[in-house]
Amino acid sequence: MNKTVEKQELLDKIVEAIQDVKGEDVMIFDLSNIENSVAETFVICSGNSNTQVAALAGSVEKKVRNELKERPWHVEGTENAMWVLVDYVSVVVHIFQKQVREYYDIEELWGDAVITKIENEF
């Protein structure tokens, strides 16, 4: 990640991009104190359809690229848009369809994380 882009700034842009497309149940998981975690931070949100999930992922990529000049290291899941992962290395964004999120229950899986719930702005 570009040193000039602070992680908090990246998190703020990701959350703004999610809120722009009305993503729901937005949570930030701080995994920095968890041994062997795959990233420092997860941002997790839900959409109501594959169209909204794809739009959420597109919004995150576009806002971060346009405002912070950062591109994700890796993106996967866009083919069916049930669960899209946008990986910025230190921050990984998980965008789920609601039923898929319930099925995988990531909140339970990373229960040791410090979790911040972002209130909906709409």
Automatic annotation (TrEMBL):
Transmembrane segments: none annotated. Belongs to the Iojap/RsfS family. GO terms for molecular function: ribosomal large subunit binding. InterPro entries: Iojap/RsfS/C7orf30, NT_sf. This is Ribosomal silencing factor RsfS. Functions as a ribosomal silencing factor. Interacts with ribosomal protein uL14 (rplN), blocking formation of intersubunit bridge B8. Prevents association of the 30S and 50S ribosomal subunits and the formation of functional ribosomes, thus repressing translation. GO terms for biological process: cytosolic ribosome assembly; negative regulation of ribosome biogenesis; negative regulation of translation. It comes from Chryseobacterium populi. Keywords: Cytoplasm, Repressor, Translation regulation. Interacts with ribosomal protein uL14 (rplN). One of its GO terms (cellular component) is cytoplasm. Its main location: cytoplasm.
